[in-house]
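We treat protein structure as text, and this decision shapes the records that our systems exchange. Such a record has a labelled line for the sequence and another for the backbone structure tokens. The record that follows is passed on verbatim for readers who wish to inspect the format:
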Amino acid sequence: MLKRVTIVGPSGSGKSTLAQELGKLNGLPVFHMDQLFFKPGWVEKSRAELAEEVEKILESNEEWIIEGNYSQTLPVRIAQSSHVIFLDYPRRVYVYRVLKRLVKTYGRVRKDMAPGCPERIDIAFLKYVWHFKSKRREKLLKIVSAHVTEKNQLLIFKHPKECDRYIRKVRESEND
């Protein structure tokens, strides 16, 4: 049974969409790390402010889904998670999805973003997305692996179809 879920993976992998879907299916509140990290106008909060935001969520909610990487908060989130989901998709999948999202939502604030942070084309962000597999994936995987214990269930999906099958299973188990 899903109780406390941490979802990680590259931008465009579908973390927010998965979080929303699992939240609806299980009646769990969903929190987006991007909403916690950014102030209006894409102003970043300090590490201390972000840690405080995450602590508040963990202390005031028995059950939750938190999506987003933000490695400095991962150990505390994983320690309290019943499930950790890593969307480890091929680069072509998440780069395509990011580009599609940019075109579709450019100039508007997505529901998983902080207020006052409209979608924009940012070369630094596009480079971040492109280089995730070669520069950030291993670090993220090491952090996750180092903090997952026998009390967490780690799920790594290598392709969106694996994730879709998992959602179908969750949906079926909810209907039983």
Q: What stands out?
A: Residues 11 and 162 are 18 Å apart (CA to CA).
